[in-house]
Amino acid sequence: MTSVDGGNGASWREARRALISVARGLQPADVVLHNGRIVNVFTNEIHTGDVAISGGQIAGVGAPGGGASVSGVSLKMIL
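Structure (tokenized):
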């Protein structure tokens, strides 16, 4: 399989490491959406919670107002 980074996978691995670091609360998220409505498409339930986004991908979903997945917040914050 050919990758977009010339075949070595280095940029993909670095992006994964960065996303995992944000998900673990070691680095701040790019954006945190607070008190959003999160739809569980498997159970048809709607929950309220925070969503951490890093590098254009969801790094974590947590309870409103905190949690390890949204512990590091940068200056970009949408309320």
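The longest strand covers residues 31-40. The radius of gyration is 15 Å.
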